[in-house]
Amino acid sequence: WGLLGLPLLLVWLGAAISLLGAPVDARADLLLGRTWRTCPLNITLLSVPTFIAMFWALRGLAPTRLRQAGAAGGMLAGATATLAYCLHCPEMAVPFWGLWYVLGLLVPTAVGAALGPRLLRW
Questions:
Q1: Alpha carbon separation from 52 to 22, 40, 47, 65, 84 (Å, rounded)
Q2: How far, in Å, CA of 113 to CA of 82, rounded?
Q3: pTM of this structure
Q4: Nearest to 79 by CA among 115, 61, 54, 58
Q5: ∠ CA(4), CA(7), CA(13), 5° rounding?
Q6: Which helix (H) or strand (E) is 102 found in, with range?
Q7: 45-76 per-residue burial string, b: 16 or more CB within 10 A, e: under 16
Q8: Sign, CA torsion 5/90/107/19
Q9: Scanning 22, 83, 87, 120, which has the fewest C-beta atoms within 10 Å of its C-beta?
Q10: SS3 label, residue 72
Q11: Which pLDDT value is given to residue 19?
């Protein structure tokens, strides 16, 4: 189970190395970029169609751990939306990815965990 967090840890390690290697006055730009205000919102909005489809599919599977199943469905929707968004986003700094993309991914995950017990009950 510990290996599931390895990709996130590698992104955060790359972000830390990138921030430590950058001049002090450039660190804020690496972390915030130009689109930090809209990135998590756009990822969340892009995840809505996949979120609906995932919950429809999960409900048909009759899960027993509703909160975990909802979080997994939300995370898949968020990951799909993050992938679609990164093809359009002009930000290419690893610290930006490690903060704002991850936040955009976690919003549908948290919503899925919150709605799972209500919407996936059978």
A1: 41, 18, 9, 18, 17
A2: 18
A3: 0.89
A4: 54
A5: 130
A6: helix 102-119
A7: ebbeebbeebbeebbeeebeebeebbbbbbbb
A8: positive
A9: 87
A10: helix
A11: 94
Report the residue count for the chain: 122
Measured distance CA(62)–CA(81) in Å, rounded: 25
Q: Are 76 and 49 in contact (CB under 8 A)?
A: no
> pLDDT for 12-65, tens place per residue?
999 999 999 999 999 999 999 999 999 999 999 999 999 999 999 999 999 999
Is the Cβ–Cβ distance between 103 and 73 less than 8 Å?
Answer: no
8 A C-beta contact, residue 91 and residue 48 = no
What letter does residue 87 receive in the DSSP assignment?
T
Give the whole-angstrom CA distance, residue 68 versus residue 86.
26
Q: From CA 85, how far away is CA 24, in angstroms rounded?
A: 29
pLDDT tens-digit map of 80-118: 999 999 999 888 899 999 999 999 999 999 999 999 999
**62: DSSP letter:** -
The rounded distance, in Å, linking the Cα atoms of 10 and 94 is 10
